[in-house]
Write a structure and sequence with these properties.
With 79 residues, the chain is an all-alpha fold. It has four helices and no strands.
């Protein structure tokens, strides 16, 4: 539901605390030694107000860009 608020309704201040990809992105960006809980993610995301949707988009982009650049296990990188 919250993802629809970001994409379809262009809401600027929505965060997706239960989204696994976002939690992994926050773990990487903040160099946490654990996967943040949804409550921890909300506490971290409080600093992003009033543009939490924009921050969420940047974090998603960073995760997916990194995933595309890494070769799959057992495969050589494309040249």
């Amino acid at each position: 539901m919250q993802g629809a608020l970001i994409l379809a309704l262009h809401r600027e201040d929505v965060v997706l605390p239960g989204d696994l990809a976002l939690r992994k992105a926050v773990r990487a960006a903040y160099r946490l030694d654990h996967l943040p809980t949804p409550q921890e993610l909300l506490a971290i995301a409080d600093a992003w107000r009033p543009y939490r949707s924009l921050a969420t988009g940047y974090l998603f982009s960073a995760v997916f860009d990194t995933a595309e650049q890494q070769p799959a296990a057992g495969r050589s990188p494309a040249t």
